[in-house]
Fold:
Amino acid sequence: DVKVTQSSRYLVKRTGEKVFLECVQDMDHENMFWYRQDPGLGLRLIYFSYDVKMKEKGDIPEGYSVSREKKERFSLILESASTNQTSMYLCASSPKGIREAFFGQGTRLTVV
Amino acid sequence: EDQVTQSPEALRLQEGESSSLNCSYTVSGLRGLFWYRQDPGKGPEFLFTLYSAGEEKEKERLKATLTKKESFLHITAPKPEDSATYLCAVRLHGSARQLTFGSGTQLTVLP
Structure:
């Protein structure tokens, strides 16, 4: 069974804090993704990675960075959290090629 | 601009009342279309992949079809446990790694 695990289901952080969201997949997938999901805006791609240490910006990368030091792990970093980064964050992975992506359970982040 | 549009935004059905959800796309070079189910507070769950016009996939009460401009998710004799938001996503030429999502259809099946 495919498994994408996000480190936290719920997080509450203060404005200005540095926030780390971790994601691990056990399927040996090449591609990993970070999305955020907001009511009325749908899923928007923040960053993705197609290999270890490789990354590409998605549609809304401002205020975020990522790290992929190992194939199975993809981290999203909020350098200085702001209230407009309150959202549901979703990690996904997919194999090489035109294949489906599998999602984690999501992290509901609230920045106060 | 490439777009993915889902309709209706919300749909309420009685248990057993069959219906269809629509996903239309105005993109060139479709490489694949994907359907997901999402329960409240959870990540999307993969349902189907469709690659070419005329293709169909089935799983229990769900059947997905694809034409050159749209996809349908047919729900036959739905049950309350089919209540969820259904998302479609497309993968395009030149963006082989990225999915572009529609905004979803929120389905409620009443007992």
In short: Chain A has a mean pLDDT of 94.
